[in-house]
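Input/output pair, single chain:
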Amino acid sequence: MGSCKAPNSVLLLYLFVSLVYQCFATELDASQTALLRVNASEASAQQISETFFGLFFEEINHAGAGGIWAELVSNRGFEAGGPNIPSNIDPWSIIGDESSVIVSTDRSSCFERNKIALKLEVLCDSKGLSTCPPEGVGISNPGFWGMNILQGKTYKVALYVRSLGSINVSVALTGSNRSQKLAAANIIASASEVSDWKKIELVLEAKGTNSNSSLQLTTTRKGVIWFDQVSVMPLDTYKGHGFRTDLVKMLADLKPRFFRFPGGCFVEGEWLRNAFRWKETVGPWEERPGHFGDVWMYWTDDGLGYFEFLQLSEDLGALPVWVFNNGISHNDQVDTSSVLPFVQEALDGIEFARGDPNSTWGSVRAALGHPEPFDLRYVAIGNEDCWKKNYKGNYRKFYNAIKSAYPDIKIITNCDGSSQKLDHPADLYDYHVYTSSSDIFSRGRHFDSASRNGPKAFVSEYAVTGNDAGKGSFLAALGEAGFLIGLEKNSDVIDMVSYAPLFVNTNDRR
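Output:
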């Protein structure tokens, strides 16, 4: 992609001035005229970096789980309550009363990193004194505020099952009133087939449409059944990589040159125990333990993990920008003398992305179906941590280790270098701004006085917030447009720009 030129910015400025002029024209005398002179010559042009416009994704507002990640089941492994039992199985619900079925959890799963499984004790039967209701008893999952099941589309259902006896389990996608079956199939197996954990996969084609559907697992046969890692995925995901096609096409249409992930505060966590740790998010989806994002207060199964973020960057034709934890959360932090395990985790993460398929972590990537390295050129050491006690000490440990192993990687500091010179080495510095429409408009001139020497800026998070923004407003759009014009004008000291947050699920607006 060739470099952009300043005349584009001048035209935006002209449109802005014209709009403002038209808004107030009715208050002016009709005989008055205004003349705007624009210098659009090549000599006045300011080159803009090829990486100037990109995207920033954070797992906030259920942007990933229940958003661009196409998994329809919420809390698919019954792990959302943590590793102890009884576990919180929400939003799963029980079909049948306590005289016919008992639902509990135990630690009998075959997966070492997520031991919780759901136990279904069926007390009724298909015949005899205690007869099950015709629709059976079992469990139901509504997904993320209802599964959007579409007629004609196919869905892959995967689950693990174990039982003390033979089973006949109905797997159904049902409408909002539960009696409307949009798609259904039966799992029939002998006791010997399911005496140990068995993975079952089904492909269901929807015969109807309902945006408030749910998954039901029911039976009318007495016995004890265990379920674990229950998944429903549409088959038509973006390039077959598990993302919602409709939403990711919107991202692709923006033609981003970079993709920053996975946060944000999501990377830090309120506490380090709940921070995003990349090693917990790779490997087969069934084996990922998931974690509670305690900043935005919801559980994620981490089906959307480090590998998937790298894959999405590649699918969008955008350079990945990986933000990793530097041993600091909102409430606790690791002393610089003890931060080396975090440093090694970052080095391992870079090897996962870029390493030879025969390397320790490159082989893990290759096993996931991507033997070729990803084009990882940028990493950010932490997020909004510059002011914290151990940040600069920790930062230097990361910087020296990464530059020694990967001298070509560009490293981004959390410290703002626009107002004063940085006291540590960096390739780029991060600049975030969330404010009112008028203030963000005035900040278009912020970089006019920034030093022309040293690292350039990465304006990785900007937005109008508060009353000016609402759910989107013309005033906010004008303020942000004015800010962007200022960034383009100062593109000699700004390399990259992205808005935040990218998505919001209207059911969980943070």
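The two ends are 35 Å apart (CA to CA). The chain has two domains: 54-67+237-499, 93-234.
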